C-alpha cells in the first residue's frame, strides 16, 4: 500500500534512511514533510518498507530522497515510488523530475538510468565528500 506519510511513520523512515545512506537526514527534516503530498511511504503488512520525498523547487519536481529497506530491495518498491512521483509531477503540470545522486553511487545511477532518467549535468563538491550527478526524467 502506498500513501502520504504521517508523523507516526517518521521512526520507520529514519530507520530506512540510516540503513541506506552514509550521511542520513535527521528526523526533524522528515517531520517538516509529514502530511506533505509529496512525502510517500510504501507499507507492507503494517511495516514501512520504502519512502520518497518529491518537492517543488522553482516550479520543477525534485526528488529529494528515495530509499527502500534493505530487506525489500530489488522487489520493485523504488520503481513503484518513482512511478507515483511521475504521476504527482504530471498532475501538477511539471514536465520533468530532477534529482542529484552521488557520483560514486553507480548502483543508484544505473537504477535511475533504467527508469528513464538521463544525465543532464554535474555539481562539483555538492556533497562534502563527493560530486553530484544531476539527472532528469520527462513525465
From TrEMBL:
Key word Ribosomal protein present: yes
CDD domains: NAT_SF
A GO molecular-function annotation: protein-N-terminal-alanine acetyltransferase activity
Entry's EC annotation: 2.3.1.266
Enzyme category, top tier: transferase
InterPro entries: AcTrfase_RimI/Ard1, Acyl_CoA_acyltransferase, GNAT_dom, YpeA/RimI_acetyltransf
Keyword Protein biosynthesis: no
Record SUPFAM superfamilies: Acyl-CoA N-acyltransferases (Nat)
Keywords annotated in UniProt: Acyltransferase, Cytoplasm, Ribonucleoprotein, Ribosomal protein, Transferase
Coiled-coil features, chain-numbered ranges: none
Family matches, as Gene3D superfamilies: 3.40.630.30
GO cellular component: a single term: ribosome
Family: Belongs to the acetyltransferase family. RimI subfamily.
Protein name: Ribosomal protein S18-alanine N-acetyltransferase
Amino acid at each position: 500500500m502506498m500513501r502520504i506519510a504521517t508523523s507516526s511513520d517518521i521512526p520507520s523512515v529514519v530507520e530506512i534512511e540510516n540503513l541506506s545512506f552514509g550521511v542520513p537526514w535527521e528526523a526533524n527534516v522528515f517531520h517538516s514533510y509529514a502530511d506533505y503530498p509529496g512525502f510517500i511511504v510504501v507499507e507492507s503488512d503494517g511495516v514501512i518498507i520504502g519512502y520518497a520525498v518529491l518537492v517543488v523547487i522553482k516550479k520543477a519536481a525534485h526528488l529529494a530522497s528515495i530509499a527502500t529497506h534493505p530487506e525489500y530491495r530489488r522487489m520493485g518498491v523504488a520503481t513503484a515510488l518513482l512511478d507515483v512521483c511521475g504521476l504527482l509531477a504530471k498532475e501538477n503540470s511539471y514536465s520533468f523530475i530532477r534529482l542529484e545522486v552521488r557520483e560514486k553511487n553507480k548502483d543508484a545511477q544505473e537504477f535511475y538510468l533504467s527508469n528513464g532518467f538521463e544525465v543532464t549535468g554535474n555539481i562539483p563538491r555538492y556533497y562534502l565528500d563527493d560530486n553530484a550527478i544531476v539527472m532528469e526524467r520527462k513525465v
